[in-house]
Specification:
The chain is of the alpha+beta class. The chain is built from 19 helices and 11 strands. The strands form 4 sheets. A 4-stranded mixed beta sheet has the order 1-2-7-4, with helices on one face. Strands 3-11-8 form a 3-stranded antiparallel beta sheet. A two-stranded antiparallel ribbon has the order 5-6. Strand 5 and strand 6 form a beta hairpin. Helix 8 crosses helix 19, helix 9 packs antiparallel against helix 13 and helix 10 runs antiparallel to helix 11. It binds protoporphyrin IX containing FE. Protoporphyrin IX containing FE binds next to helix 13 and helix 19. Its main location: membrane. It holds the Pfam family p450. InterPro entries: Cyt_P450 (IPR001128), Cyt_P450_CS (IPR017972), Cyt_P450_E_grp-I (IPR002401), Cyt_P450_sf (IPR036396), Cytochrome_P450_78A (IPR051996). Belongs to the cytochrome P450 family. One of its GO terms (molecular function) is heme binding.
Length: about 550
């Protein structure tokens, strides 16, 4: 019995051993897999929980210097993506920096993208002026829209240097800006007529579309040598306008797959790629047509050197500088694109503040009246030289740039190309996206005193005890055009256009609030920061 039992047991064992082993094997494998997954998860969570800056800053990436870079942990995988993907990123980053005691430099994660942001003028200077930050991270939309071949997104190197030098000499040099003064004056006059027309027709004026038409025409005149009659619904003008708007939407849209690259295989909410692919052939068609018109021009329409537009300049390049047609399209399209909206939206902000502050509006009017006799006559058009003698107007434009910088985060970030030590002991690792929160710097009470949200041009008037600040990149307390090698090359042209237009608008009309649509200073951040509710106003002509 005992034997048989043993036998049976053994036999049973003999029969069931493989089965039992099978079961155990599965159990073991499942268990092992489970333990591995749990360990991986726990390690990941521990790593995440202890990495200031979030998931893209793991493994002590923020501790390369003697002082670690502080920052929020954010969510696993996503970091701070959810809070920064919509709304006013400059304000949110400023809040995050103050709650993390990280005003000087804050590390944060946009999905798998490690980023830093500073709200300190000294650190901002170190970053913007360094050759190690002379490249930019390139968004998918910018790549698709050909911008990586143009100045703004071309990596630091001989191609970018050549493009920048050509643009600086032939497009943005002071004598070129002066040469196009007549064109800018013409556009201003056309815009003033359109404003007067709308006022008499509707009893109020929606300024934005007039400013956009003026800016577009000003830049197409300089770049393409062409003006468009937007009122007459010129087909090419309408197409160009649409292309610029769509391009702005696409470049400004927050593209999740820029920061979570795996997402593009599943879901792309803003359909950025698809829309870029549809837009590019339309841009190419239009710009190539304009290039062809220039090539086909016969000798009878020969221009003087001063009348050359930018297409002429690019066509005249030779040797190593010569661009192929696709590169030309990219460069020309970028100029049209960049030169249009920033100026228009800055003028809209200035006018909104002037409507809310009638005293400041009348101060500008008085200043212009003393400088330019008969300012109110419809025939007198302000010149750049008049503007150079208008310190109050200059202070108003600076104050608008401070209160409402069109690029509150300087629009286009920088990318570190090496580990970069800062003077405060922190090290920004290579391949980190670096941003400057110019909005936060421009509203910092330690720099500007109390009431930083008040519109007070006097802070820039030496005669009123204010400070003279060079807004063109020389002083990081207010650098709305950026600084260093990648500083905005169009800043002088932008400032000249904005100042002339504001002067004309104030000289020819008194601007008062449209009570049915009160001025609302709420912001909307797209590629640039614009008024969320377009400005509506009532204008009273100062001229008979
Ligand atoms: C109020 C007007 C304008 C503002 C506030 C503005 C602002 C800026 C800012 C903040 C940058 C980035 C600078 C940096 O990274 O340090 C930039 C770059 C640039 N801007 Fe402007 N801009 C204005 C007008 C213009 C105009 C009129 C043009 C040309 C027609 C222009 C062309 C460019 C280009 C090509 C770049 C890229 C430069 C590079 O990466 O090398 N901008 N702008």
């Amino acid at each position: 019995m005992g034997l048989s039992n043993t036998y049976e047991d053994t036999n049973m064992l003999g029969f069931s051993l493989p089965a039992i082993l099978e079961i155990n094997k599965y159990c073991d494998i499942n268990l092992i897999l489970f333990y591995m997954f749990a360990t991986f998860l726990i390690c990941g969570l521990i790593n995440w929980a202890f990495s200031s800056g979030g998931p893209a800053w793991k493994n002590g990436r923020n501790k390369m210097g003697r002082t670690p870079i502080p920052g929020p942990i954010g969510l696993p995988i996503f970091g701070s993506l959810f809070s920064l993907s919509r709304g006013l990123a400059h304000r949110k980053l400023a809040r995050m920096a103050s709650s993390n005691a990280a005003r000087r430099l804050m590390a944060f994660s946009l999905g798998s993208t490690p980023a830093v942001v500073t709200a300190d003028p000294c650190i901002a200077r170190e970053i913007l002026a360094s050759p190690h930050f002379a490249s930019r991270p390139i968004k998918e939309s910018a790549k698709h829209l050909m911008f990586s071949r143009a100045i703004g997104f071309a990596p630091d190197g001989p191609h970018w240097r050549m493009l920048r030098s050509v643009a600086s000499t032939h497009l943005f040099a002071p004598r070129r800006i002066l040469a196009h003064q007549g064109g800018r004056q013409l556009e201003c006059s056309a815009m003033l007529s359109a404003v007067a027309g709308e006022q008499s027709l509707k009893g109020h004026v929606q300024l934005r579309k007039h400013l956009q038409a003026m800016s577009l025409n000003t830049i197409t005149d300089i770049v393409f040598g062409k003006r468009y009659d937007v009122v007459e619904h010129d087909d090419e003008a309408l197409e160009l306008n649409e292309l610029v708007r769509e391009g702005f939407e696409l470049l400004g849209a927050f593209n999740w797959s820029d920061h979570l690259p795996w997402l593009k295989y599943f879901y792309e909410p803003s359909r950025v790629r698809e829309r870029c692919v549809a837009l590019v052939p339309r841009v190419e068609r239009l710009v190539k047509k304009i290039i062809k018109e220039h090539c086909d021009r016969d000798g009878s329409t020969e221009k003087t050197r001063e009348e050359y537009d930018f297409v002429d300049v690019l066509l005249s390049l030779y040797g190593e500088e010569k661009l192929d047609e696709d590169d030309m399209v990219a460069v020309l399209w970028e100029m049209i694109f960049r030169g249009t909206d920033t100026t228009a939206l800055l003028i809209e902000w200035v006018m909104a503040e002037l409507i809310l502050n009638p005293k400041i509006q009348s101060n500008i009017h008085k200043e212009l009246q003393t400088l330019v006799p008969n300012t109110s006559s419809s025939h007198v058009i302000i010149a750049d030289t008049d503007i150079a003698r208008s310190p109050y107007l200059e202070a108003v434009v600076k104050e608008a740039l401070r209160r409402h910088p069109p690029g509150p985060l300087l629009s286009w970030a920088r990318l570190s190309t090496t580990d970069f030590p800062l003077s405060n002991g922190m090290v920004i690792p290579a391949y980190t996206t670096a941003m400057v929160n110019m909005w936060a710097i421009a509203h910092d009470p330690m720099i500007w005193g109390d009431n930083t949200f008040e519109f007070r041009p006097e802070r820039f008037l030496a005669s009123d005890g204010g400070t003279g600040v060079d807004v063109r990149g020389g002083d990081l307390r207010l650098a709305p055009f950026g600084a260093g090698r990648r500083v905005c090359p169009g800043r002088k042209l932008g400032l000249a256009s904005v100042s002339m237009c504001v002067a004309e608008l104030v000289m020819k009309f008194e601007w008062i609030e449209d009570k049915s649509k009160p001025v609302d200073l709420s912001e909307e951040l797209k590629l640039s920061c614009e008024m969320k509710k377009p400005l509506s106003a009532i204008v009273i002509p100062r001229v008979n």
